[in-house]
Design brief:
Shape: elongated
Largest sheet: 10 strands, antiparallel
Mean pLDDT: 84
Strand order of the largest sheet: 1-2-4-5-8-7-6-9-10-3
Order of helices and strands: HHEEEEEEEEHEEHEHHEEHEEEEEE
Radius of gyration: 25 Å
Number of strands: 19
Distance between the termini: 57 Å
Number of domains: 2
Length: 314
């Protein structure tokens, strides 16, 4: 009986689909036309084919791709458009926000870096406009964003990781030998989490000991994207000049994959690089400001990875 019931539901669904398909054909539609305004993710790849532009000047199509956790738009020029070369200013408009960047022009393809915040806006927007400035003729296109959220989230797991071999990874783990110390330092925040969520956070820790004896202790609390944001986690860091000194909090931000750049020091403290836990976001460089870590305007990841560095202690 159960199998017949399932078959009945499937048959009913098939009938509704067939009827809808007949109606679509009668109206002059086709399956490809029905999907033409949606974003399509390449199976097993971090690449998404955008639908045809709603309006365009010189641009025929686009692919949104991710590599080493960075997104870029690859624009294909129309056959009648003369192929420029070099670099040009570009603007990406998503809703009311404008993202300024630089486009690389090569043959019939234009590559435009897309910021992580722009990717987030695309997921919830209705249309996006890209313009390439300083070229003749003018190049621009408006793309619909229907289905962009599902397509981007399907592609994110396939985006390759950045090469961080030249940096010290902060290996946070709930099995750290510093866990009791970490929980004591974060006891107030742990209690606030309990009150807000009626649950216990997952606490992880890692310690980095610098060559001159000073150290950094990192404490991660995870358990709620509602409470902590998209990553579901929060990370705090504490510093001290020696084992006899007290810990001082010097960093507090949403959960991220953290790395130390021990080649770049400010007052003896290494730069801290935060990479998003999910694919396609922007890395953030944190530098010592004399008292704690603050966001820096410099490039987070150097072009050359340099020599490898030891992992943090657990």
């Amino acid at each position: 009986m159960q199998r017949h019931a399932v078959a009945g539901r499937a048959g009913s669904s098939l009938g509704r689909w067939f009827g809808g398909a007949v109606l679509a054909v009668a109206c002059g539609w086709s399956p490809s036309a029905l999907a033409a305004d949606r974003w399509v993710t390449a199976e097993g790849e971090a690449a998404i084919t955008l639908p045809e532009p709603l309006q365009a000047k010189g641009i025929a199509g686009a692919v949104l791709a991710c590599a080493e956790q960075k997104w870029s738009l690859r624009l294909t020029l129309s056959p009648e458009t003369a192929a420029p070369s070099g670099e040009a200013a570009a603007k990406l408009f998503v809703g009311a926000q404008v993202f300024e960047t630089r486009a690389t022009l090569e043959n019939v393809t234009i590559t435009v870096p897309v910021a992580g915040l722009a990717i987030a806006r695309m997921k919830t927007g209705t249309r996006a406009k890209i313009t390439i400035e300083g070229v003749e003729p003018a190049l621009e296109a408006i793309f619909p964003l229907r289905g962009s959220k599902a397509a981007i989230e399907a592609a994110e797991p396939f985006c390759s990781k950045r090469d961080m071999s030249g940096y010290e990874r902060i290996g946070l783990t709930p099995y750290s030998s510093y866990l009791l110390e970490a929980k004591e330092l974060r006891k107030d925040e742990i209690e606030l989490f309990r009150q807000a969520t009626a649950a216990e956070p997952i606490v992880s820790a890692a310690k980095s000991v610098l060559p001159d004896g000073r150290s950094l202790l990192f404490v991660e609390l995870c358990g709620s994207s509602w409470y902590y944001g998209a990553s579901g986690c929060n990370v705090a860091a504490y510093s001290r000049l020696s084992d006899a000194a007290a810990w001082t909090q010097v960093y507090d931000a949403e959960g991220a994959d953290l790395y130390l750049d021990n080649r770049t020091l400010v007052d003896g403290w290494p730069n801290l690089i935060a990479l998003p836990k999910k694919g396609g976001g922007d890395e953030v460089l944190w530098a010592w400001d004399g008292e704690a870590y603050g966001v820096s305007d410099g490039d987070a990841v150097a072009t050359g990875p340099g020599a490898s560095q030891p992992e943090s202690r657990q």
